[in-house]
Design a protein that fits this description.
seven-stranded parallel sheet; alpha/beta; 17 helices; Rossmann fold; 411 residues; 15 strands
């Protein structure tokens, strides 16, 4: 039997998030009256926390049967998972700190509903579907992917002709990545670092690896907290942009000697390695905001260490003999493993994209490929968000529309 205190805590978190997600609320009301997902079975692997629960409620209100688990071993909030599991037509298999075997066991339980639609954050659900549950592929109408890392994996599958289902790259919607990846990751990453370490940021040298939208957000918020920001990049255009935005840009070999806080946001492997750990100062802090815990080579860090101990919740000290390196949240997504994830107002847009793209998949037969979010969905969500914020914008006049269509005009 589930602890009533746990349920109360989960329900309170969900209520708070729901009250701050007005766009998804409008969509949920429409789903409740129209039932566009009636009879649809949806398998989900997402970060199981309060904002995700509001998305699940929205899909269930539209008539869907849902099975959900986590997409990261440390991002599930057990009270929210317990509350979700009490909802009609929802089965939740997520738990905090799941082992690798428990994690994939739960993924398979979710797939046991023989889904029509999949919803992924990072691609593990689709990966498992294609590797070990191929018998289910013929019944799949399509899927959605929430994050950059997952879209990378899907694009690779598509190029290798390994993808056997249509998937919508929700991450690539303007109303997702321009806000979720930038403002959401920026704020939630620093919220997690600050609440975990309780240390001053102002005056410190902060190294942000990667200047994609997540890296932009983390850099922007670090600057706002008074940090001296250093950006490392492999893309010359992004490196130039970071420099023009006012940050120092250098190689990680150089930055490793200077940095006091390191944040990885690349979605790639071995961004920080033995060679960098050797150069780091005593007391540096490592945090990861990429989806998987592979951006720092933790096996190399551990092999270099004389002792490893937990010195504070979500902080491990790796003692290298003459220096100490502190790792936050085991190198997992720091904003979710050591915090509450993105603000509800940002996830309002991201999960509205998810809900409307799922409906789009149900209503349409898409080719096997990685698809963009339909522009009309992006525009509709932006319009609803502006309305919720009480903001009105101009419209083109007839004369202006005509001018934009014509080409004869010159000086």
């Amino acid at each position: 039997m589930v602890d009533d205190t746990l349920l109360e805590s989960g329900n309170q978190k969900i209520e708070w998030a729901r009250n701050h997600m007005p766009v998804l609320s409008i969509i949920r009301d429409g789903f409740a009256s129209e039932k566009p997902l009636k009879g649809c079975r949806i398998a989900m692997a997402l970060h199981v926390e309060a904002k995700t629960a509001v998305l699940v409620e929205t899909l269930a209100s539209g008539g869907a049967e849902i099975a959900i688990t986590g997409c990261n071993p440390l991002s599930t909030q057990d009270d929210v998972a317990a509350a979700l599991d009490t909802r009609d037509n929802v089965s939740c298999y997520a738990k905090y700190n799941a082992s690798r075997s428990e994690y994939y066991e739960s993924i398979n339980k979710v797939l046991d509903i023989n889904p029509d639609i999949t919803v992924d954050d990072g691609g593990d659900l689709i990966f498992t579907l294609h590797k070990t549950r191929q018998e289910l592929l013929s019944g799949i109408k399509g899927g959605t992917e929430e994050t950059t890392t997952g879209v990378y994996r899907l694009d690779s599958m598509s190029k290798d002709n390994a993808l056997k289902m249509p998937v919508i790259a929700v991450n690539n919607a303007f109303t997702k990545y321009l806000f979720d990846n930038r403002y959401g990751t920026g704020q939630s990453t620093w919220d997690a670092i600050n609440r975990t370490t309780n240390l001053l940021v102002a005056g410190k040298d902060v190294v942000v690896a990667g200047y994609g939208w997540c890296g932009r957000g983390c850099s922007m918020r670090a600057k706002g907290l008074g940090a001296n920001v250093i950006v490392t990049e492999v893309n010359p255009v992004r490196a130039l942009e970071a420099r023009m935005d006012g940050y120092r840009v250098m190689t990680m070999d150089e930055a490793a000697k200077i940095g006091e806080i390191f944040i990885t946001t690349t979605g790639n492997v071995s961004v920080l390695t033995r060679d960098h750990f050797k150069l780091m100062k005593d007391g540096v802090i490592l945090a990861n905001s990429g989806h998987f815990n592979v951006e720092m080579n933790l096996e190399e860090l551990e092999s270099m260490s004389k002792t490893v101990r937990t010195v504070r919740e979500n902080i491990k000290e790796y003692h290298l003999g003459d220096r100490r390196i502190y790792l936050l949240a085991d190198g997992r997504l720091v904003n979710l493993a050591a915090g509450d994830g993105h603000p509800a107002e940002v996830m309002d847009m991201s999960f509205s994209n998810q809900a409307l793209c799922i409906r789009h998949l149900v209503d349409n037969d898409l080719d096997i490929d990685v698809h963009a979010v339909p522009p009309e969905i992006d525009t509709y969500i932006a319009e609803l968000k502006l309305k919720a914020l009480g903001i009105e914008i101009d419209e083109l006049t007839t004369e202006q529309e005509k001018y934009m269509r014509e080409w004869e005009h010159g000086t």
